[in-house]
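Suppose you are handed a protein chain with no further information: no name, no annotation, nothing but its sequence. What can you learn? This example shows the usual starting point.
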Amino acid sequence: MAENVDNLTREPASEVQTNGSSKAEPVSAANKFPHTEIRGRYDKYRSAYWGAAIATLGMRYAMRPFSRQWWEPENKSGAVYNYKDNVLKKYLYGGVAGLLMYAITILYARSTLKDIRSIFSETMAWETGKKAEDISFKDLWQSKNDIIHRTMRNYLKYNFRRSFVNIFFFVPFFPGVANFFKSKLGYSLHAESGGDWGVGANSAYLFSDVIYREETFFEGLQRFIDQKINHTDKTGDVVTTADLISLYDRHAKDKNPNYTFSGRMDTQRWKNDQRLFGRIAELMNQTYNNEPNHEQANFTVPKLIYLLGNGLIDPEHMERSLAYIETAGHNPGMDEVKQMAKALGSGMSLEEASQRGISSPAQKDVPLAGNDNPGAQPEQENKHTAKLAGETRTTARDILASASGAQSLTEKALQGNGTGAGLAAG
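A reasonable first move is to predict its three-dimensional structure. Written in structure tokens, the prediction is:
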């Protein structure tokens, strides 16, 4: 069922012959002129985890005045401390710092998992047939949706790294470590050794993030939802074509590491992106009441995740992608989309398969996102919506007309009112 984006790669730089050998010419794929190289732009993305982690590290100093009495290697009588009575007290300072770091790591992991469930549960319900509230961690882990699958692996990867570096706070507590340093290296561990190692390990991890870390698709999706859907500190912001193209670009790059958006805006591919994601932006803005919902649109974030994660949105297959978008945006669930994808997968033509997904507000009562009483639609409004559906909406039938050489209603909308271009410019 899924179409992939493996074939989406950067256009190769022109090749020139130099002394009989092929060498890439330093020409930008975006503008055909020598590009300006930027090497000092570090810290492209830093996880919100570090803000809490760095603040937490400072809390360890609260224990310092109370733990100094245990910092001497021997007591006044010269007796050697035993493991239980001495080591736990001597290295208490570093241990407390480690516990604080594990606490913030666990807290951040739990908050992230709540976001994962909140965003992906409905998408998973369509995939598994379960209720959204019954989706388990195992369901998420075993998802066939590329976006959910990759998000779950990133979730475990990053939390494993954070947990691993925090182990260094507790190294002095391990039996035999202190004796090893004293007998082999001639060095007696100090009470602050664990704290020093833990802070050093976390600093090295933070440095690697500053140099190499990039925003994941899920982190970009969190920001997108917070600003464009929930309007947190961003009142008045609407979903734009550029927002959605950026998300798709991140998804394509994660799926195929060799993929890089060419940056060219004078190509048919860019026009296809404008048309596809401009239409999604229209539907999402209506769905989330960023603008009047004159189409009874129902294109939610979970539907976007379903279509992207299953490869059903692909600028290389415009008409098919638009058919999926219109079907998803004018039905309450994704059953019609699944039927269409199954039919196409069995070799059925787009014209035949799309008949399974055609739906219009005049035929169905489609619940609106954010509408507390979706069934309460005045009769006059229903008639008006039905008229709009026949005049301005792009349905699966319109897509088929475009595929056969006729100009689709979507193209008319883009050319006539400039909605898609306006959103793209945003």
